[in-house]
Write a structure and sequence with these properties.
Number of strands of chain A: 2
Distance between the termini of chain A: 28 Å
Strand order of the largest sheet of chain A: 1-2
Helix content of chain A: over 70%
Strand content of chain A: under 5%
Radius of gyration of chain A: 20 Å
Shape of chain A: globular
Largest interface: A-B, 36 and 36 residues
Oligomer: homodimer
Order of helices and strands of chain A: HHHHEEHHHHHHHHHHHH
């Protein structure tokens, strides 16, 4: 079995070799592609493909192509999302559309999606059809999730269940699909594939809620980014959706008024909204929901018909993702 | 053997049934997808997939998924190209980004590309790997061609060979790949696949040059669009590239000056540039080049190891595309 660090090394090495051993022309198209891919991120999704495979097989070579496909696809979505959100920074660097313009960002993103499928096509032929089905379903759902997110931000009223459905599509299904693709490559049966998918899906939901939680209730000294950014931008997070849902009318009006008011006093806005969240016990409610999804994910993993010691690294990763403080 | 009209009917019917028999949600994502797909266009690419298959096999059912994949991919490229070119009309209707905004146009385009791969994945499993390889290569080349086109329009000096390479990538490789995919599905050997690919590639080059030719030298009464639009927009066509290449310095200066001058007199600009083209025999040189590529394409078709009568419809289509006057 390979550790998370060993899998990460495999992914980085294969990505570098791919760039070095091929000619990419024209540079205007491909420079933004590799700029996007080389970001020093966590590479969770490709690691999940390889861990899913490694659960069933000791040799992970046959999973590398799918792992890179999922990673490249994920980075393509970030690139296009950054245009749609008009974000100027990602991972402390200018976004592609800020650095090279919107047209280049659109086209380079398109090329990345095709590159993802090129990698997928390098998978063992006997698994290609199944891999395509799992991957395509998730890829389309990611687009659907992004559209729901756009709809929400454009002002439609959002309930907890709508929010959870949105993050299921936008974030979780790709984590789930990554694990299932690993299972497909490891010749797992349908039941094990589904349990791994649901392990990933629930983990993804917990992961996204942890993101929402940390942005308001994280510890500034370890979080890295500014605490309260979601509050400042009125982002529809689990915290806000839940607060709007459970608050009495006077509190809800106070919250909405504070969101609309733009007096430039950022610290005060963060303080006031956080105070409302505290009065409503939003932190506890969020933590509770995270534990719920975390437990669901562990239940599904426990049902996978593989010796417990083979699951150790996946449990470790799940623990890391849920208990992280940045 | 099925006629072009019969194949067209198969394509339209399958596309309609696909829309009717599936739920597409959210509407904000999928309405622009079907708006783009239902345009009453020529459907050349999917017809070519089915004709390529029909050359070798009487039953074309196994080619429908690939045919739709190619058509959906082509329409995705038009959707994203329209954003990049900031075009407001396509086929006498508002473009998606004018009708729904740039963000929707980006995201719906992304969803279309994934839908294309979903169709591809419905192809017979034994051919899937080969189909993916042919399709992915062409798809990536289309992006490369679009980037070269952007580079050209941004001002780099363009020679005839650069222009031909650009249209090879941007237009021809997908027509070629469509035919090769049909051949793959028809169990054709590698040599026949390559000859069909090159038949399509040369046909595509001739087709694009015919486009350039008609925009300036077409007959207004049948052309449909305004004659001279490429001249008005200073578009880098084969005509312009060739004229800049072969003209003596004084003529070249006159041409460049007329391109830069923006006195609002459109009719006069078209007249003057056309006159320069006529002095340089650009129409004849373009026709010559079209005949050259047309002949190349016929040579490759003649080498395909199939009875001549099976090639009749492909020859008819090639003839139609080259001799068309609109």
């Amino acid at each position: 079995m390979k550790s998370i660090e060993e899998l990460l090394e495999v992914i980085e090495r294969n990505l570098s070799e791919y760039r070095e051993n091929n000619l990419f022309y024209p540079a205007e198209l491909y420079d933004p592609v590799f700029y996007t891919l080389q970001h020093g991120g966590k590479r969770i999704r490709p690691v999940l493909v390889l861990m899913g495979l490694n659960l069933f097989e000791d040799c992970i070579d046959e999973g590398i192509a799918s792992a890179l496909a999922v990673e490249i696809f994920h980075n393509f979505t970030l690139l296009h999302d950054d245009i749609m959100d008009n974000s100027s920074q990602r991972r402390s660097r200018p976004t592609v559309h800020k650095k090279w313009g919107v047209n280049t960002a659109i086209l380079s993103g398109d090329a990345m999606m095709i590159l993802a499928y090129r990698f997928l096509a390098k998978s063992p032929q006997k698994h290609l059809s199944s891999l395509m089905n799992v991957f395509n379903k998730a890829a389309l759902e990611v687009c659907e999730g992004q559209q729901l997110d756009i709809n929400f931000e454009a002002g439609s009223s959002v309930q907890e269940k709508d929010y959870l459905e949105m993050i299921r599509l936008k974030t979780s299904v790709l984590l789930a699909a990554a694990l299932q693709m690993g299972a497909v490559l490891g010749n797992a049966d349908q039941e094990d594939q589904e349990n791994l998918y649901l392990f990933g899906l629930n983990l993804g939901l917990a992961f996204q809620l942890q993101d929402d939680y940390l942005d308001t209730f994280g510890d500034q000294s370890v979080f890295g980014k500014r605490i309260g950014n979601d509050i400042l931008t009125n982002k529809k997070t689990f915290l806000l959706v839940k607060a709007l849902e459970i608050s009495a009318e006077t509190t809800r009006e106070k919250l909405v008024k504070r969101m609309i008011l733009n007096d430039g006093n950022e610290t005060e806005k963060i303080r006031q909204v956080t105070e409302i969240y505290e009065d409503l016990s939003i932190a506890e409610l969020t933590k509770q929901k995270i534990r719920h999804f975390h437990q669901n994910s562990l239940d599904h993993l426990s049902r996978v018909k593989v010796d417990d010691e083979r699951k150790a690294f996946l449990l470790e990763l799940a623990e890391q993702l849920i208990t992280r403080d940045k």
